[in-house]
Specification:
By secondary structure, the protein is an alpha/beta fold. It folds into 2 domains: about 260 residues, Aldolase class I (TIM Barrel), CATH 3.20.20; about 35 residues, no CATH class. Helices cover about 40% and strands about 15% of the residues. The chain has 13 helices and 8 strands. Strands 1-2-3-4-5-6-7-8 form an 8-stranded parallel barrel, surrounded by 6 helices. Helix 2 runs antiparallel to helix 10, helix 7 packs across helix 8 and helix 11 runs parallel beside helix 13. About 45% of the residues are buried.
């Protein structure tokens, strides 16, 4: 039986908090955040001791319209620098690159020329070979790298173990366990966490966790997997993120005992900006339709459509999901 790492009173120096507010939250408003929002978020994260801030995606401009999406869908170097300058802080800058949705060989410069520190490659399990190619490319450019394997709750165990074995032999620095559909519970999330940790034993690689809140378990699953040794923890302001959203960063920072973290600066940001986003009609957070897709281990796209249509016929929607399950 795997041992838990530390206890509720101990400080673990290996823990890293990554703020994904712009990246995952951008899926709620097509990345149309004001410069003031992003600049204030950057300063709040620096002051709060957050370890990484993810600015968004490096999406292909040939695949995605610059008219439809805000600039954090593309994360141009000059746009990040307009917020952070040379980033003379201890916090590192991250972006995400989706397999098949970015022009990674043309849109990234060498790390020595970039203010970005880490590139996180997101893929489904059948895209692992393509993800490895991207990881090695970014590693050669000098970046820290992570691989976020999405939708593992629908992958079979053999596939997952093969993927972890290949990644363990790669140059990747961090492998993320991702609960894409918010379908995991603390018990099976911790079982998966232990498999990920065992797969990288002796390699020096770290494991991270990215939660979704479909069943109100994002925070619970985050601290449960952390207790078994996962180190890189994703969170967002008030849990903003696609559909039911993510683990709330104020919950996570409030839980961590490391004195380097300071929740006050996160709260100042939240009170200034997050109610205003809600008032603008940006939707995220737990609701019944997201619970249903989490329970049934389904992609939340149907629940998002339900939300956007302002439907309230929850029972009919649930019945329709059962018919397609």
């Amino acid at each position: 039986m795997a041992q838990r790492k530390g206890n509720l009173m101990s400080v673990r120096q290996d823990i890293k908090v990554l703020d994904a507010t712009i990246r995952d939250g951008g899926l709620c408003n097509n990345f149309h955040f004001t410069d003031e929002f992003v600049s204030d978020l950057y300063r709040a994260n620096v002051r709060a001791g957050v370890d990484y801030m993810e600015f968004g995606y490096k999406a292909s401009k040939s695949m995605f319209s610059e008219e439809e999406f805000g600039k954090w869908k593309f994360c141009a170097e000059e746009d990040i620098r307009s917020i952070v300058g040379d980033n003379l802080s201890d916090m590192k800058i991250s972006v995400m690159a989706d397999v098949g949705r970015c022009d990674f060989k043309t849109d990234f410069v060498k790390k020595s020329e970039s203010v970005i520190d880490m590139v996180r490659v997101a893929c489904y399990i059948h895209q692992i070979p393509a993800a490895i190619e991207m990881v090695e490319y970014f590693h050669e450019l000098g970046y820290e790298t992570a691989c976020n394997i999405m939708a593992v709750s629908q992958a079979n165990t053999e596939q997952l173990m093969q993927a972890l074995d290949v990644l363990a032999k790669s140059s990747v620095d961090v492998i993320y366990l991702v609960d894409s559909y918010g379908s995991l519970y603390p018990e099976n999330a911790s079982e998966l966490a232990q498999k990920y940790i065992a797969a990288v034993e002796g390699t020096g690689k770290q494991i991270g966790f990215h939660a979704h809140n479909n069943q109100n378990l994002a925070f619970a699953n985050t601290i449960e997997t952390m207790s078994y040794g996962l180190s890189y923890m994703d969170a967002t302001m008030q849990g903003i993120g696609r559909g039911a959203g993510n683990c709330a960063i104020e919950l996570l920072v409030g839980f961590l005992k490391n004195p380097k973290y300071n929740i006050y600066h996160l709260l100042k940001f939240i009170e200034k900006h997050m109610p205003a986003l809600k008032e603008q009609g940006v939707h995220w957070g737990y609701d019944l339709q997201y619970m249903f897709t989490g329970l049934l281990n389904q992609h939340p796209r149907t629940a998002i459509e339900f939300t956007n249509a302002e439907r309230k016929d929850y029972s009919e929607f649930y019945k329709s999901l059962l018919d397609t399950h």
